[in-house]
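This is your field. Have a critical look at both lines of this record:
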Amino acid sequence: MGDERATTDCKDAKQRLTIRGCANAAGTHKIKLAVIGKTLYPRCLKGVHNLPVHYYANKKASVTREIFSDWFNKHFVPAAQAHCRQAGLGDNCKILLFLDNCSAHPPPELLVKSNVLGIYFPPSVTSVIQPCDQGILCSMKSKYKHFFLNSMLASVNRGLKIQDFLKEFSLKDAIYTVANAWNDIDKSTLTSAWHRLWATMMFENDLADEDFEAFKDSNEKMMVSKLILTPKAYQLKV
């Protein structure tokens, strides 16, 4: 049967993590990952005060409106504003956060803070235009598997059995591994993922000077092109 699973001596992992990645269209800023686990104070994180992610927890290890609101207000807004200032943009530059229609996301009117504005994609466009689904998350998962398998092979080379490695691979190890995978995503992967979203608004170089309507349309395209090349547009995705 095609859906039968091979029998192994390894038990399935019971721990679950939800990962939220967010990066800007210019490819110059990746927000620190938000990771949601099942336990707020797991034993493996005892004494660890500076994780490379923003860690949250609930029984289902899922995103809630409370978690999202905390992340948005305490982490995303300050980080995005700081990056824009560092890039030389004014304090009042508009920062756009693109979101999918997840039930855990608050209404758009609650996603307005200072110069930051949340914008929702239309339904059912995940596989079509959402940047994080155009290679960003796939790259992160691929790099995670690469780092994980390298760690496993290194342990096997030291004489540790695979089953023992899997038992020792803790939530802390998973957090640091996925953070390394996120940090390892390069700029070209981030920028190329936005191409479908902006495809209809790309600037055309071949423009007749005497064609006023084309000139007006091209100016609008140029404005959008400038927007995506600055740190102001972000997309968040689970």
